[in-house]
């Protein structure tokens, strides 16, 4: 994010003045952005009483330690008050944006579409989290004044204030106001300060059931209709497999797994109870035999260097698709293990993706690499499956032009980006603009918001091959080529894409292999494949020309032309 005069995008604007909901400035109020920065700097440089004695090994009195505890409590209250101020700012920004867009005759359902992205970028969270903060802040400010006052005073934390909004979302405005006063009113603040989070939730549900039992029944029925199974990444190449089901069903399933695990433990099974429960769950869901929970066929897209896959390199691979978003880096031995232990090798294929010495993706092996399908796959590989927007961790759903096609933007790799649905829709709002740039040789996108703030998102560095070949070196004339019928023959040279007349000589670039599933001893997926001269480890790849087009029968509707498959496999 760029800063102008120390303020992000604030050139020529007067600092906003902090005001109370009734419009009157509070006593000793912090005056806008400069005052907030002064407070932050003062807190960062605050001298802790007795800290020097701790560093020198001296004795710290009990009074000083008590002051430390008081400081912790007061700083927590300050943090809650800061959240309340951020909520007020989010609400006024949303209202001002909607008013501006209403004057531009934008439809009501499209107004304020870009606000969650602006708030998320300012808070350095995802646009989804930014949207949640905006909607929750609107409820605090406009519908739950006692909750908002408790947040401002520091008695209520952001999470507990969010719970008050969440657990009353099914109530009418009148009933929500009653719950707000009953829990966070001035007469109940002392009790609220002593109340634990679970007790708070129980108290909210109790009041809601007393006020509107029919709304509670409707909420429960809606929750049952939203049952689902989800998966999200966990540390150390693990995942959380979560099932959201009705309480009775979930308790019954857990009890069955635990009973089965305890029975096996009693029979001498050396695994832990949790391990047996996890293995049993996978075996029953995947219909595998007991003891074969690991033998689950899976398709995973990996971005892996040639040395890691085909030699003994240590460059880690990156999960692009087929696993939970954010699964991230896979150690080199694990990537080779996935490649070598395939359940069904016929479902796997390899495709080379070329990178320059800086690690920037350049092309695929397909000569028609800029058709929509190939380009979209390359864009997803460049962003490694995660939305290109800064701080957004959502999975990729859309591929879009950086400079819009209507403004003459080309459909190319440099002018393309992969985004989630929310980020793609947000940048269509008035006042948003983007342009392509580079940072350290990597593809980058500069986004300018309606408020003038600039955010730069940089594509992650792909796995780098251990060695690069010389683009000027002569091809290996002794490598195996392809016979006209597609069978391998000795003494013929595979086709070198670099030597074709319509290509310009590029700087040295080396393939990094994009792998879908485990593969070895693999034959081409179809009768179409294209070869290219690669590194010594790869050798020459067999080239098969496309067959002549079929003649259409008289009176028969013209079939849609099939696009050939340009994927290739390594002849291990």
Automatic annotation (TrEMBL):
Ranges where the record places region Disordered: 1-28, 453-572
Superkingdom of the organism of origin: Bacteria
One Pfam match: HNH
Residues covered by the HNH nuclease domain: 374-425
GO molecular function terms noted in the UniProt entry: endonuclease activity; nucleic acid binding; zinc ion binding
Compositionally biased spans, kind Basic residues: 550-563
Keywords, in A-Z order: Endonuclease, Hydrolase, Nuclease
InterPro entries: HNH (IPR002711), HNH_nuc (IPR003615)
Protein's recorded name: 5-methylcytosine-specific restriction endonuclease McrA
């Amino acid at each position: 994010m760029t800063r102008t005069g120390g303020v992000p995008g604030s050139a020529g604007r007067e600092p906003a003045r902090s005001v109370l909901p009734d419009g009157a400035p509070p006593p000793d109020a912090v005056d806008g952005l400069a005052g907030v920065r002064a407070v932050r700097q003062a807190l960062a440089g605050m001298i802790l009483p007795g800290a020097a004695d701790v560093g020198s090994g001296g004795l710290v009195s009990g009074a000083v330690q008590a002051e430390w505890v008081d400081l912790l409590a007061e700083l927590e209250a300050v943090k809650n008050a800061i959240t309340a101020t951020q909520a007020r700012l989010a609400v006024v920004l949303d209202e001002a944006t909607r008013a501006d867009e209403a004057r531009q005759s934008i439809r009501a359902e499209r107004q304020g579409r870009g606000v969650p992205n602006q708030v998320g970028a300012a808070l350095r969270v995802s646009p989804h989290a930014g949207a949640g903060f905006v909607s929750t802040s609107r409820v605090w400010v406009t519908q739950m004044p006692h909750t908002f006052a408790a947040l401002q005073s520091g008695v209520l934390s952001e999470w507990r204030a969010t719970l008050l909004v969440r657990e009353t979302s099914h109530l009418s405005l009148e009933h929500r106001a009653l719950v707000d006063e009953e829990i966070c009113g001035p007469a109940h603040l002392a009790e609220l300060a002593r109340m634990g989070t679970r007790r708070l939730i129980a108290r909210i549900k109790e009041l809601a059931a007393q006020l509107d039992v029919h709304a509670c029944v409707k909420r429960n029925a809606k929750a049952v209709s939203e049952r689902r199974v989800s998966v999200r990444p966990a540390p150390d190449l693990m995942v959380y497999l979560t099932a959201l089901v009705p309480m009775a069903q979930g308790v019954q399933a857990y009890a069955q797994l635990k009973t089965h695990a305890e029975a096996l433990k009693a029979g001498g099974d050396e695994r832990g109870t949790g391990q047996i429960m996890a293995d049993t769950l996978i075996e029953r869901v995947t219909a595998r035999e007991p003891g074969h929970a690991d033998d689950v066929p899976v398709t995973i897209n990996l971005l892996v260097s040639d040395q890691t896959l085909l030699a003994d390199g240590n460059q880690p691979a990156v999960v692009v698709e087929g696993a939970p978003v954010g699964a991230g880096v896979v150690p080199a031995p694990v990537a080779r293990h996935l490649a070598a232990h395939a359940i069904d090798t016929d479902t796997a294929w390899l495709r080379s993706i070329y990178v320059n010495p800086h690690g920037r993706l350049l092309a695929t092996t397909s000569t028609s690499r800029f058709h929509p399908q190939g380009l979209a796959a390359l864009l997803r590989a460049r962003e490694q499956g995660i939305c290109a927007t800064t701080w957004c961790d959502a999975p990729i759903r859309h591929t879009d032009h950086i400079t819009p096609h209507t403004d003459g933007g080309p459909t190319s790799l440099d002018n393309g980006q992969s985004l989630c649905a929310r980020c793609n829709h947000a940048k269509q709002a008035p006042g948003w603009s983007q342009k392509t740039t580079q940072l350290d040789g990597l593809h980058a996108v500069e986004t300018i918001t309606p408020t003038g703030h600039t955010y730069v998102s940089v594509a992650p560095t792909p796995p780098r091959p251990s060695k690069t070949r010389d683009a000027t070196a002569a091809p290996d004339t002794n490598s195996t080529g392809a016979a006209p019928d597609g069978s391998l023959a000795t003494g013929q040279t595979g086709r070198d894409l670099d030597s074709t007349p319509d290509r310009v000589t590029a700087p040295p670039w080396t393939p990094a292999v994009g792998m879908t599933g485990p593969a070895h001893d693999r034959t081409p997926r179809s009768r179409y494949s294209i070869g290219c001269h690669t590194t010594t480890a790869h050798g020459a790849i067999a080239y098969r020309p496309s067959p002549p087009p079929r003649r259409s029968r008289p009176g028969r509707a013209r079939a849609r032309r099939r696009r050939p498959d340009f994927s290739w496999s390594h002849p291990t």
